Amino acid sequence: MLSIVNPVVERNGASTLTRGLLKLLTLPPFQAHLEFIPVRSEPVHWRRLAQARGLVLGSLSNTPAKASFLYSKEFRNKVVARVQDERFDLVIVNGADLLWISEYLPKSMPRILVAHNIEHRLFRTQIQNLSWLYRPLEVLLRADCRRLEEYELKGMRESRNVIFLSEDEAIYARGVCAGLHSITLPPVFDYEPAMRQPKKPGPILEIGLLGNFLWWPNQLGLRWFAHEVLPHVKSPMRLSLFGRSASRGWRRDPRIVERGMVESIQQVWESCHFMICPSFSTGGVCVKLAEAAYNGMPVLATSHAGRGLPLGEDPALVFLDEPGAWIEFLNSAAAWQLAERQVSGKTCARLAIGAQKDPFQQFVMNAIASGTAPGACS
């Protein structure tokens, strides 16, 4: 597996999903012998500078900035050496940003692309939500988005076999890539769920938001809640932020407390009455919502956050979209009642690794058996 993330050292949605994929591949009866090669052993430092460099280089070539950002000669040479030294039955490209590596793989080698997002649609949403500071770059960014779309769709057609996280994205991709073989795989978890017992709130309602706040969709959701909802909530509550770098882009409010990174995600469930997931980006699925639901945590979310997840109807999962609806809910007894609920075992089971093992392994075996050279998809 060639990967955009290193799940051993990184803690984010992509890493969580990758850990589930690796486990699915090693479970019986498939029991794959894996070689895992991340593009970087550690997350890049000076990330914004590297992104700016990728944007400039992309404008001088046909390579989009997201691909330029992850380009590495060291990684390329390592992959080329490994595929020459040993015959692999299959290559999994974990993340569309790495599709550039396909040029260095044997044409006859079957491969699967893991599409964490439809990247060009996600990027388009990001451009639409640019702050005033980045508005002067809009023309440059839109040109890069067009390059990204061409790059991504070409990579999907050449890969032919694609794992999507959302059925909405699978339908879109099949509409623009005829003959695509795909499966929709939600985030899955192999550990025993916490299934935190419902507890009656004290004088203050403790809610939590979990995420990597360096990632712009999480920043967007936090700003929306801090600016549009929280100032109008009169009920006593406190929002704890769990994750990296949440200190910009939102209004200072004493009810918002930064907890940072925690040693165990169990600490998140134990310290909160319920979680919130204000998500608006067009792409992938909300891994933090999936993991909260898997552990029995009640959640207040936007309907977009639940898009593509096999959650079904559950009274412990409340979906509201307008700021006024969130304000009314948080100011009412319904919020306190949500704190005493627990996501049902039936809902949790849909996100357990065993629920997805058989169809996933069959999809992988079909990809290997096909042995069809990339490029056969029109």
Any idea what the shape is?
A: globular
Summed over residues and divided by their number, the pLDDT gives a mean of: 88
Uncertain regions spanning at least 5 consecutive residues: 372-378
Task: Please tally the β strands and state the result.
Answer: 12
Query: Strand fraction band?
Result: 5-15%
- Largest beta-sheet characterization: 6 strands, parallel
User: CATH first level of the largest domain: which class?
Assistant: Alpha Beta
Q: What's the helix count?
A: 14
- Helix/strand-derived category reads alpha/beta
Distance between the termini: 25 Å
Rg computed from alpha carbons, rounded to a whole number of angstroms: 21 Å
Q: How many domains, in number, for the residues?
A: 2
Helix content percent band: 40-55%
Question: Could you say what the CATH architecture of the largest domain is?
Answer: 3-Layer(aba) Sandwich
Lateral strand order in the biggest sheet? 2-1-3-4-5-6
Query: Would you tell me which CATH topology of the largest domain applies?
Result: Rossmann fold
List SSEs in N-to-C order.
Answer: EHEHHHEEHHEHEEHEEHEHEEHHHH
